[in-house]
Every structure is written in C-alpha cells, then in structure tokens.
Amino acid sequence: MIGDGSLERFKREGRIVVVGASLAGLRAAEALRDKGFAGSLTVIGDEPHEPYDRPPLSKQVLLGKAVADRTALPRLRSVDATWRLGVAAAGLDMAGRRVRLADGDEVPYDRLLIATGVRARPWPREAEAELDGVFVLRTRNDGAALARRLAAGPKRVLVIGAGFTGSEIASACRERGLAVTVAERGSAPLVGALGGVVGAVSAEMQREHGVDLRTGVMVTALEGDASGRVRAAHLSDGSTVETDLVIISLGATRNTEWLAGSGLGAGPRGIACDAGCRAFDVRGIVTDDIYAAGDVARCPHPLFGYQFLSLEHWGNAVTQARIAAHNMLSESIDRIPHMEVPAFWSSQFGVNIKSVGVPSLGTEILIAQGSLKDHRFVGVYGYQGRVIGAVAFDQARWLPFYQELIETTAPFPPPFPTVDRHSDGARPLDADFPDPSIPTHGPTVTLSGYSPADRRMTFTPAH
Amino acid sequence: MTQSALHQILDYANRPNPYPIYEELRKTPVFHEDDGPYVISTYYEIRSLLHDPRISSDARNLTSTTGGGPAEPPQEESALPPGFLKLDPPEHDRLRRMTNRPFGPPHSPHRVDGMREELHDIVSGLIDGIGDTGRIDLVEQFSYPFPVTVICRLLGVPREDEARFHTWADTLAASLDPDPDADPAGRGKEAHDARMELGMYLAGLIEERRKNPGEDMLSQLATAKGGDGPMSTMELLSTAALLLIAGHETTVNLITNGMLTLLRRPDVLQRLREDPKLAVPLVEELLRFEPPVQLLPQRTTLADIEVRGVTIPKGASLWLVLASGNRDPQRFENPDRFDPDRRDIQHLGLGSGIHSCFGAPLARLEAQTALSELARRMENPRLLEDPPPYRQNAVLRGPRHLPIACDGIRP
C-alpha cells in the first residue's frame, strides 16, 4: 500500500467491519470516522442493545441507583454505520474476507476489527445453572434481572467467586441490607489479582461489612427444590448454605469460539496480536487486514518482558480501540504501538480500589504509604528488583507517581522515604500470589505466554 | 535566566503581566539561585511533583533557611493548628475526608448543586445593587462580597451576622496583601484582632450548632457520626478558617480575572451573553489562562530527588509555578491564546494530587454563575483602566480594583 494511493482509496471507499458492539467496538468505530474513514462501516453485535457501559452493572444498578437499560455509552460523535445488532458473528473466512453471521448472512470486509470481548464463565453443571435463582453478571439483561431479584429481598445471596465482580456484588448486597455468603476457592478475595497481603485486607473489609466469607472452599453442588428453584449450595468443606439467589462470578471466557478453524491465532486465551493490534494467524504470521482490540485481544508489552497481556480493563478497551483504528488507516511506518500501562478501578465496601501496572507479576509488595490496618494504603509490587505494579485503597491520587516508576523501570524497593510511611512499610513482604497453575477467579490481567500463536494450545483445523 | 528571576516574579511592576517572565523561566525548568527555593515552571514536571509522595506540604519538614521566601504570605500569629492545606497524610487525609463528608460525593453529592439557585440569587442581588453605572468597581461591588456571602451560607452563618463576617474577611484579606505604604504595626494589629474576633465568633457558633444542629456544614462537621467521628473545636476552627481564606481570595480573583479577560475580548463576551452554557468551558480555560493561585510556595522535599537532571536536596523549598505550567507550549497549543473552545484542557489551575482544590466544584459554579450573569445583564460593559491596579500578592494574583462602566443594567 505504499505510495500507490491505495490507502487513500481504501479510506474513501473501503469496507470496514467491526465485530463487537460494546465499548471497544463503539470507540473504534468513532475513531475510524474521526480519522477520516469515509467508506462503509458495519458494526456487528450479538446483543440487541446499542453499546452500553458495563461497570455500573455491578455497582449502581444492583443498588437500584441506576437502571440497567439506561447505561448507554455516551456517543462521542456520529459514526454513520450499519448496525447489525442482535446477531452474533459465527465464522470468519480469511481468504474470502467475509464474516459469517449466525443468521446465515455474510458481510464482506477489506479490513476487520475484532472486539468480541468476553462473557461470564457459566456454572459448569448445566442442570444446576438452569435452576431458577442462579445468575451470572455480564450483560445488561443479567444486570436488570439480578437487580429485580435483589429488590425482591432474597433471604440469602450466595456469591461464588470473590474476584472484583463477585466482591462488588457482595458489597452491593450488603449495602441493600441483604444477607450474603461469599465462597472463594482461593485464600482470600481478590487474591488472584492483588495477592495475599492485599487479599487479607479485602477479607477483613468483607467481614467487617457483615459478609459471611468462606475461603479455601469450592461449591460442589447447587440444589433446587421441586419447583426448580435453587434452595441450597453444598460446599467442599461439607457445609451447606441455604440460599435462594446464587450469583456465579467465576471470571470470564473469551469470545473466540466463532473463530475456530478460521486460521486466525485465536483461542481460549484470546486473539494474539502485535503491539499495533494486528492479529496473528495460527502460523504466527501477522495479518495486515485483521485487527483486535479490547478484552479479547492479547498483545506483547515491552514493560512486562514482552509477555502477551490480555487486559479486561475499561481504559484498555478505549485506548486499544483508538490505536487499532489509527493503524487500520495508516501506512506501516505511521502505525503506533499499544503500550498503555494497565490500570483498573473497583469500588466496594465504601473503598475505592485502583491499580496500575501488573501487580500479579509481582513477587514482593511494599506498603509504601498508609497502613493495611486502616484499609487505606498504596502497595507497590516488585519483580526482579524493579517496580512492576501498584495498588491503592482510597489513595488513588498518588498512583500517577507509581505509574511513572513502572514506566521508568525504577528499582524495587523504592529507596526513598515518602509521606505517610508506617511500620507496615519498613520492608517488602512476600506478595503471596497463589500458584499460577491453580485458576483463580480474579485476575483481570492474564499473562498468556510468549509465543504469538501459542503452540501450547490446540487449534483444530477445519480441513 | 538572570540573577533576579525571583525578584522579577515578585516585582510589583510585573503584576499585570507576569507571563513573559514565566516564559523566560521555563528555559530553566528547575531554577535555583543562591539559597533561594527551587522553582519549577514546566507543566509535566509540576504535575509529576504534585503526585510525588516525596514532597511534603508540612513546613516542619523544611530545613532550608529561606523558607517560602518573600512570596510567602505573612505568617498568621495564630494558636490554631494548621489547616489540612499545610498537612501531609495521614492527618491531611483525615481532616479533608471529614470536611468533605458534608460537602461533596459520596456522602453529600447534592450540596454544591443544591446551592445553584442561591448563588444565582446572591449574584442577582449584587448586580441589582450596582447603582451608578458610569463607574463601577467590580471588585468592591461584586467579586469581593459574592464569595464571602456564599461561604457564610455554606457554613451556616446566620443572615444577621453576615455583615460582621464580611468585615472580618475584608480585614484578613487585606492582611494577606499588605500595602507597602501602610503602617505595618497598625495593619498587623487589625488583622490579629479580626482573627481573634472571628475565632471567638465561630467558636460560639460551633457551640450553638452542636446543641441545635442544622443542615449547614458547620453543624454537620460538629456532629459528624462517620468513622472518623466529629471534629474537635480546634480542628473545626482551623478548617473553617481555611475554607474562608482559601475559598475567598481565590474566587474573588477568578471572577475578576474572568471579567477582565472577557472585557478585553468583546467577541467572547458577546458569545457568553448569547449562550450562558459557554460559561462551563470558558471557566476551565480561565483557570488555565489566569489561574487565581499563580504558584505553590509551600512544598518541600523529604529526600534528594532528581528533576530534569537537577538534584533537589532533601529539605529544600519548592515553588511550583502553576501559572507557568499552564502556559507551557510543550503541553498546550498556542498557550498564550485565550480559547474557550479548547478541548485539551487539563490545566493546573486547581492543582492536582491530594491537595487539589477542595472547593473546586463550588468555585467553578460561582465563577460560571457570576460571569454569565454579568455578561447577560450589563449593557455595553467596558474597561475604564487597562491594566487595572493589581494587588501586591504575587501568589494570589488579581486586580485590587476593576473600574468598569456600562450603559445600564438589564433586568
């Protein structure tokens, strides 16, 4: 496409298809138009709704302070797209440059952006998952249904999995005055994302707010009554929790099944792409017409040893979408890499939790400011002698400083005093992350290996 | 930069337009001469330092002999403990958190918005009372009384006491900005007396509010039942004093600088008159273009830190020149152009980090209300002096008087 005018022609009359009509898909579509793409633009989404914002679903919506169907994402500009909503993409023909839809339609493209995101991991036993009163929380419909059930005043809510979503749900339940049990396989809530030192604080917060927190246990079975309503859960420690509302919060599954057999480097860990959001094929060769952004993408990050990172973060979806859009409309030398430092926030039990970098890579943690006891602190994570991540509980305003330390690969532990240093911060502690081979429910950053096409995964060829 | 860099900033002759000095200063992003403070003038460096936990706002950590230098307002001879502006965490966090509880989200999300109508009424009353439109001093007749009235209503000062409150506030404000020709001893005594009387008055009001609490901030601070408990009377007094001083001078200057800026740009004034909603982006641009707090002279280093290749030693005094960072061409395109349509507007006018302006939502609403109403109601307003006479203070910079005229006041 160098110098022959083909890029200009593509920008004028080309066809771009965006698969995924949530945050990344919408922001990418807007960015494409912003950057002068005047051709045809089609946005495909499996949900029937216009793009909406998900963070409120586990917060304000469950509290009854916001209505699930009023969480539409603000539009930054008009996108003049053909919206194919309520129909999922079902297949990809890379050679023929066509996306096949679940209704049998085919949509041709010159360039494709995949932003299909993730979905809630369902309860593995299908019959139990079908019981009335068993929910997951990912979509607007999930949020609306769950909010109605919470408003109806269940006798006891059981949340299975104490990652960020599960913990936020438990927090909302307590704020509504509902009895809630949380069952977590790990040693503490949030342990997968933030480690055991911070997990212990989170456990304390839950218990202080009246959550019946059970850690180190698995739910072995859900039991229904004669009318098919859930009535109890059986735990691996032999105990039983009587409950009429169960929320499965076991993390997310990437929406890549529709790409199976397409030849694209996509699998359960996401879609491998380069730093410019271009997807790899299964042979490890980068494509030039297929891009990925948002939760479903995984791409190498120079600050983190070029590990392929999948980030289930709101901010990541926004910037990655913009970068993908830019690169889709650029000659190779004008492309820009996606190198944003990961960041996410959560709000639970009256505490604002914010993190930068990749805490779960850390082996040690230094409580640089504040104290664990007060549940107000900044924890800095170290990995091989450098700062790799930081988390703040009600201390978010300091994080830009720690982000700079991460970006400049500053030494760990930081060799200087700070304001508000307590005895907690005298020396680094073992960050106490669980064995990575044991799945936890919480990590929103997944280190998914080094090899672009990830040969450890089995790609089943279609022919 | 020449030897006299700091003197140029402080030189009264440069008060009307300090921006060329800042431009010169930015050529040396970390400026230091002799035993003076380390002066930081570029956007990114200032912003980094505002989030840097190795920087203290507590003067007790200052070991350099120069202190804040001559730009530091005269020290209050006061028995009160320092307000949270001059404290570090955790004390700062505790007091600010407690003060925020009855003021802003999450506990009081409607406090400021609930004052919208009241602000409008106060502004209308002041404009109605302008009288002779041939010569108006906008500072005396409008910018000064407005924020004091707002703080009285916020704290819950009874209407019948507002006049006394205004007198104390005026005296204290004047003491922050000493007239070099006035008798310093006499001025000092006046300020001291005003502080004492104000303190006694507030202590009495707090006592009364503890017994009969209302919806006002003072009542809620005195009777708070949150995790941090209620404030002690001493803490309440120093917090109330902080709100009064910090929320007053700055807002006066924001409004006065705003009207001055608009009167120099009749086209923008006309746009605001036709579209009051323009006030929102306009006030943001104003906070960038003419910030009411020009520089922060009270920070100090807890360790040796390196900024742009310069090692600033532990215990040194830092000046963060916000107004210069706001005009840094490395950050803002055409920084010397006043452009209310500017979209990329993350200015430093309200600071950043843990000490970022506590009253920001109120200050914004006050300035938006004031400027849009002045624009709407004044017929053909114009400056009578340009530049107007400025106050001495180089930190809280603004006109002492703003003589203007107009052809009449619209209803």
TrEMBL record, chain A:
Residues 15-321 form the FAD/NAD(P)-binding domain. The keyword Transmembrane helix does not apply. Transmembrane segments: none annotated. Keywords: FAD, Flavoprotein, Oxidoreductase. SUPFAM superfamilies: FAD/NAD(P)-binding domain, FAD/NAD-linked reductases, dimerisation (C-terminal) domain. This is FAD-dependent oxidoreductase. Residues 344-414 form the Reductase C-terminal domain. One of its GO terms (cellular component) is cytoplasm. It comes from Streptomyces luteolifulvus. One of its GO terms (molecular function) is oxidoreductase activity, acting on NAD(P)H. Signal peptide: none annotated.
From TrEMBL, chain B:
InterPro entries: Cyt_P450 (IPR001128), Cyt_P450_B (IPR002397), Cyt_P450_sf (IPR036396). It comes from the Bacteria. Pfam families: p450 (PF00067). This is Cytochrome P450. CDD domains: CYP164-like. Residues 57-112 are annotated as: Disordered. Keywords: Heme, Iron, Metal-binding, Monooxygenase, Oxidoreductase. GO terms for molecular function: heme binding; iron ion binding; monooxygenase activity; oxidoreductase activity, acting on paired donors, with incorporation or reduction of molecular oxygen. Belongs to the cytochrome P450 family.
